[in-house]
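Sat 14:20. Reprocessing the chain from the morning session after the first attempt stalled halfway. Input below, unchanged.
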Amino acid sequence: MIDPEYLGFLNDNGYFFVRDLGDGRWAGLSDFMFTCAIIVGKIGDRSGYDDRWCYENRNAAALALVQWDGTGEPEGWHRHPASGRRRRDGMEEYVNF
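Finished this time. Tokens:
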């Protein structure tokens, strides 16, 4: 469970629509310059986040977050910065370093 103080910390640092994934991790949205991303981190960790998937807009990211159960990867992303993977049209995947 995400305590209110930690949720406030996340909100103060730009994360919104945050939810508990039920396994000690949280997931939420964050706006970047050209994208909106689903961000995943450990509950209580104040040093950063563990993973990120970029979407073309807030609506696409929010829909993917609502539909995602926290296992594997969320659907519909176009960029996964940690791996360098990108997707075209939600299907074709390639690595761009």
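The two ends are 36 Å apart (CA to CA).
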